[in-house]
Structure formats: C-alpha cells, structure tokens
Write a structure and sequence with these properties.
This protein is 32% helix and 20% strand. By secondary structure, the chain is of the alpha+beta class. The strands form two sheets. Strands 1, 2, 3, 6, 7, 8, 9, 10 and 11 form a nine-stranded antiparallel β-sheet that branches. A two-stranded antiparallel sheet has the order 4-5. The mean pLDDT is 91.
C-alpha cells in the first residue's frame, strides 16, 4: 500500500508582497465568495529548493534547472582552447540532447527553449565528455551523446519531477504535491505610497521627491497543504531510504521556516509556521482547506484557525470512517456522536500556542 505523508501548515505573515501577479500586486484568489491572499506553489517550491536549509541538508543531491547549459558548455570549450566555431557547434550538439534549441542569432541559439532539469549524474557525464573532446579536439560521436539518465538521486527532481518534451522516457513523476497557500480569512490588498529623497537636493530650487511609487501589500494567516508519496519518493531516489528521510526532513524544515523572497528587502516579512499537523498512512489524501471555506473572523485568528482545522479533520474522519456506538441511548444526548479515534490517520502535531511537539519529533514521526 502507498504511504502518503500529509502536512498542514498555518503561518502568519506581516505586511508583505511575497508573490506578485502581472500587475505587481500580491496574488489573490476568491474562496468562499471572499478574496484571499495567495502564494503560488511555484513560488514556494523555488524558495524552498534554493534555501540554505535545503541546500545544506541535501548537498550533492540537488539538480540544475536551466535553459543556459549550452552557453555554459560553449564557454568551457573556449576555455579549453577549442575554436569559437567548433565550440559553438559542439555545444549545440550536446545541449540539444536535453531539449529543442532556440532558433535565433548570436549565442541565443545555444539556449534550450524550455527549462531543463539536469541531474548531477547528467552534469558529470557532460563534464566528462567536454574534457574528452577538448583533449582529442574532435566533435562528439553519436553514441557519446547518450547523456540522459533514467537513474539519478537528486532530491528536487525526486520531489517535484521533471518533464523532457523531447525525451519523455527520461521524465520523472513528482512524489510531492504542493498546494497554493491561501489566507484563512478575508483580505483587502492595500497600497503603500512611498517617496525617495535626493541626498544632493538642497531644496533651493525644488523641494519635491526624486521618486514616487506605489506597492501593493497585505498581511495574513496562511493555510498550506503538502502531500508526499513516500513510496514514490524512495523509488525516485533509487531505493535510498536514508536519502528519502533526509529529503523529507529538509522539505518540512524549509516549508516551516523559509518564505518566498518577493519584496523581502522592503517588508522583512519572514515568518515561521505556528502550527503543523502531520499525518501518515495509506488513505486517499485530502486537503483540509475546506475548514476555511467560511473565513475566520475575530481578534485572535490563530487559535480559531487551529480549532477549525482540527474540527474539520475530526468530522471528515467521522463521516468517512465511522462513528463509535451511541453510548447515550435513553438520555437527552442520544443524538450525539463521537468520532472513532482509531479510524483517524496516525498523526503528530507541532503547536507553538500550546508548546505541543517540536519540529524534530514531527520529522522523526514521518520517517518510520
């Protein structure tokens, strides 16, 4: 049976613009007929993958996502004494293995049209071929261009997969699903009107500002859902259970402590999760975002949000997985039902409000 690891985060951000839309305003979504702040999953995954937390924990097991590999190869050929014409020709031959190249003038035709995710094993194979070609001063043979690898152990590719349109056989199905983070309450995006003053303006001629601008922002308590197919993650990592456990721990720590970098210099809107609920088991996964279909209101949103999330989990377990026998027959409580705790998924909680649990215990729980 497949083991799913499900994680539910509640994180409060102060005024921020973590993830912007095409109008340079915070991304939003309508849920429960009211507007919410939103952080796209792409933004979250990028922030986690490039974070120091993730990079240090999984050093040597993180791939390279780029369109520019052809340019990088071309520069290595030039540094190795290959002529400009041959360097470009040979670099294009190697880069084309990973995707269709752009058809433009200059060095732009060394770029791949789509972002390609290169594993460390593939990067090593490319580097070895470059050294051989420089040494022998010849173009790569056809069989030497078999650079794609089905087997590799990069945590980011194992978690979030990769698609190679020109070589689907070498793609990888993602083991991790990440929802868009949304606020549990209604939000109105505000505008920060700001000015900048010219230091050399002595105000004798012009006392006005040197620059005027506006930036949308908002604050909110976000719910985030992450689901990991643990069996697929281990398979994607070539059966390396220890590396899978390291990957899960690094992902949880990054998701709990790392914010997207949008406008951080202006807002310093870094935050850690106040609440994390972790579940594991073979049951079909489900988000608990429905707990916030009716927006949270009031002066103390975090405890109310935690209560609503835990209550929704209890109710879903009750209606889908049975109830205890009615122990109140013949009383005025005869219609009351108590959820069967044994039918809930094994879980672990970290709650900063009650000082319940901690991050290390939660990560250890998800290992086994």
């Amino acid at each position: 049976m497949t083991t799913f690891l499900q994680l539910h985060f509640l994180t409060s951000y102060p005024p921020a613009c973590l993830n912007r839309d095409d109008l340079n305003r915070p991304k939003t979504a309508v849920m429960g007929s009211v507007p919410r702040l939103r952080i796209a999953s792409q933004s979250l995954k990028r922030a986690w993958r490039t974070s120091e937390v993730f990079q240090s924990a999984l050093s040597g097991h993180i791939g390279t996502r780029t369109k520019l590999m052809g340019i990088n190869i071309y520069k290595k050929f030039l540094a190795g004494g290959v002529s400009e014409e041959e360097a470009k020709k040979w670099a294009k031959m190697i880069a084309a293995v990973f995707g269709k190249l752009k058809s433009s003038s200059g060095n732009n035709d060394l770029e791949i049209e789509q972002l390609a995710h290169f594993s460390n094993e593939e990067q090593s194979a490319i580097d070895a071929l470059i050294k051989l070609i420089i040494k022998e001063q010849r173009e790569p043979a056809a069989d030497e261009l078999n650079l794609l690898r089905k087997k590799h152990k990069d945590a980011d590719i194992a978690l979030w997969g990769r698609m190679l349109a020109s070589a689907p056989l070498f793609g990888k199905e993602a083991a991790c699903e990440v929802g868009h983070a949304i606020t549990v309450h209604k939000v109105a995006v505000e505008d920060d009107y700001f000015t900048a003053v010219d230091d050399l303006n002595n105000r004798e001629v012009d006392a006005g500002s040197a620059h005027i601008g506006e930036q949308g922002f908002a604050a909110g308590l976000f719910y985030l859902y992450v689901c990991i197919n643990r069996d697929l993650l281990i398979k994607n990592l070539e059966g390396d259970t220890d590396l899978a456990n390291k990957t899960i721990k690094a992902l949880i720590e990054a998701a709990a402590t790392v914010a997207p970098t949008g406008k951080q210099k202006s807002f310093a809107s870094r935050a850690w999760a106040s609440y994390i609920l972790a579940e594991k088991g073979p049951r079909q996964p489900r988000s608990l975002s429905i707990a916030f279909l009716k927006p949270v209101k009031g002066d103390d949103m975090l405890p109310e949000a935690i209560a609503k999330l835990e209550d929704k989990r209890r109710r879903l377990d009750g209606v889908y997985h049975g109830w205890k026998e009615d122990n109140n027959k013949g009383t005025d409580k005869a219609d009351e039902k108590t959820p069967r705790a044994a039918n809930s998924l094994p879980s672990k909680c970290m709650n900063e409000l009650t000082e319940e649990g901690d991050l290390n215990d939660l990560c250890e729980f998800l290992k086994s």
